UniProtKB/TrEMBL annotation:
<dbReference type="Pfam" id="PF13410">
    <property type="entry name" value="GST_C_2"/>
</dbReference>
<dbReference type="GO" id="GO:0004364">
    <property type="term" value="F:glutathione transferase activity"/>
</dbReference>
<feature type="binding site">
    <location>
        <begin position="132"/>
        <end position="135"/>
    </location>
    <ligand>
        <name>glutathione</name>
    </ligand>
</feature>
<protein>
    <submittedName>
        <fullName>Related to ECM4 - involved in cell wall biogenesis and architecture</fullName>
    </submittedName>
</protein>
<feature type="domain" description="GST C-terminal">
    <location>
        <begin position="177"/>
        <end position="304"/>
    </location>
</feature>
<dbReference type="InterPro" id="IPR040079">
    <property type="entry name" value="Glutathione_S-Trfase"/>
</dbReference>
<dbReference type="InterPro" id="IPR036249">
    <property type="entry name" value="Thioredoxin-like_sf"/>
</dbReference>
<feature type="binding site">
    <location>
        <begin position="150"/>
        <end position="151"/>
    </location>
    <ligand>
        <name>glutathione</name>
    </ligand>
</feature>
<dbReference type="Pfam" id="PF13409">
    <property type="entry name" value="GST_N_2"/>
</dbReference>
<feature type="active site" description="Nucleophile">
    <location>
        <position position="53"/>
    </location>
</feature>
<dbReference type="InterPro" id="IPR004045">
    <property type="entry name" value="Glutathione_S-Trfase_N"/>
</dbReference>
<dbReference type="InterPro" id="IPR036282">
    <property type="entry name" value="Glutathione-S-Trfase_C_sf"/>
</dbReference>
<dbReference type="InterPro" id="IPR047047">
    <property type="entry name" value="GST_Omega-like_C"/>
</dbReference>
<dbReference type="GO" id="GO:0005737">
    <property type="term" value="C:cytoplasm"/>
</dbReference>
<feature type="site" description="Lowers pKa of active site Cys">
    <location>
        <position position="304"/>
    </location>
</feature>
<dbReference type="InterPro" id="IPR016639">
    <property type="entry name" value="GST_Omega/GSH"/>
</dbReference>
<feature type="active site" description="Proton donor/acceptor">
    <location>
        <position position="200"/>
    </location>
</feature>
Length: 329
């Protein structure tokens, strides 16, 4: 375990001695590919997510956009409980499938019905593993191991991993188009640290200095995205949906319901302060089921407000903002 993650469990221990939150490096970095260790196959792979988690949410969106959800047993989803406790994420029965292909009773990976927590699965994959046990996870049931637990790589892999097994219309479809790669990569360079992870750096800061040094760059970066979208474009790049949209969406859709209050990201809301970002988000949510069907506001709110007891000791989940996302007009 690196110094950055010296504290194993408990959200009160998420920050370093200097009060700054630092996210750990993901450990499992393989991919599903033909002729590789993890070959594409029906009935072999599983996706473990928390509906609240913005990183796991990326994978759920791409799974649906690629039509992977349309092939039974190609990549079934296992949803963990919304509460992240001291022991990490737990597997619990989840009775509302929400169009995710989630089994109605129980959520365990076949063969691992005895596992109560995600950390037990990580131990199967690597008995020496001692870092935080995060979602998303792509699980290989044949080799009994984790293929990948880094969302940015999972979503790239899903672009092509199952292309021979999914319906024809989805084959070859990519959210990382060759012609826009340098622009998309450059976008991630400032959006990941300042926005995607930036909200966490504000929320998990344990000193005034740490908070203040992150809240400015967060809103400066939102201002920058707002300017990009001011020409009325539907998508960030190339007139088409790319991973830049997907990765930004999962943070923005959580912003007003959670980050604004819970993480103290409260200089402006998206709905009142960023009309172009708001419109871009509304369009994705209301016009594309891959976004709407995978966005579970109840789970999102329950997770953040109830799990981080150092931030919200009484675990009260606020009712608003209502509606959680404004209708398109
Ligand atoms: N870099 C990872 C980050 C994933 C991550 O941090 N997930 C959080 C949930 S939002 C998690 O599972 N945390 C569990 C824990 O810290 O115990 C990715 O993008 O996949």
């Amino acid at each position: 375990m690196s110094d950055d993650n010296a504290h194993k469990d408990g959200f009160s221990k998420w920050s370093n001695k200097d009060g700054h939150f630092r996210r750990q490096e993901s450990s499992f970095r393989s991919s599903i590919e033909k002729d590789g260790k993890h070959q594409p196959e029906v009935g072999r792979y599983h996706l473990v997510v928390a509906l609240a988690c913005p990183w796991a949410h990326r994978a759920l969106i791409v799974r649906k956009l690629k039509g992977i959800d349309q092939v039974p047993d190609l990549l079934p989803v296992h949803v963990v409980d919304s509460l992240l406790g001291d022991e990490g994420w737990s597997f619990v029965p989840y009775d509302e499938p929400k169009g995710l292909g989630v089994p109605g009773t129980g959520n365990h990976i076949p063969g691992h019905e005895d596992k109560k927590r995600i950390r037990e699965l990580y131990k199967v994959a690597d008995p020496e593993y001692s870092q935080r046990c995060t979602v998303p996870v792509i699980w290989d049931a044949k080799l009994n191991t984790i293929v990948n637990n880094e969302s940015s790589e999972v979503i790239r892999n899903l672009n092509y991993a199952f292309d021979e097994l999914i319906p024809q219309e989805f084959r070859g479809k990519t959210f990382y188009p060759e012609a826009s790669r340098s622009e998309i990569d450059a976008f991630h360079e400032w959006v990941y640290p300042n926005i995607n992870n930036g909200v966490y750096k504000c929320g998990f800061a344990t000193t005034q200095e740490a908070y203040e040094s992150n809240v400015g760059p967060l809103f400066d970066s939102l201002d920058r995205v707002e300017k990009m979208l001011a020409d009325g474009r539907t998508y960030l790049y190339a007139d088409t949906l790319t991973e830049a949209d997907i990765r930004l969406y999962t943070t923005i859709v959580r912003f007003d319901p959670v980050y604004f209050t819970h993480f103290k990201c409260n200089l402006r809301t998206i709905r009142d302060g960023y009309p172009h970002i708001n419109k871009w988000m509304q369009n994705l949510y209301w016009n594309n089921p891959a976004f709407k069907d995978t966005t579970d506001f109840d789970s999102i709110k329950a997770h953040y407000f109830q799990s981080h007891i150092n931030i919200n000791p009484n675990r009260i989940v606020p009712q608003g903002p209502l509606p959680h996302i404004l209708p398109l007009n």
